[in-house]
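Now for a chain:

_____
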Amino acid sequence: MAFKIIASQCTACGACEFECPSAAIKFKGETYIIDAKLCTECEGAFDTQQCASVCPVPDTCVKAAA
C-alpha cells in the first residue's frame, strides 16, 4: 500500500517532498504527487508517515485505497 496526496487540498508548499525518506514525492503540474511504486509508508525509517506529519492541511496525505 502507499500514500497519496489529495490534489484539491494540496497547497504546493513542498514540505512533504523534502521529508520523504524514499524520495517518492515529486512536483507535477500544479501539485505534488506520490509515486506509489516508491512509497514505503516510511516503514523501517519512521514510526509515522512523514508526508502526513508535516503537511499543513489535515488529511491531504492519506493512505491510498486498495
In short: The first strand starts at residue 3 and ends at 5. The domain at 3-63 is CATH 3.30.70.20 (Alpha-Beta Plaits). DSSP finds two helices and four strands in the chain. The radius of gyration is 10 Å.
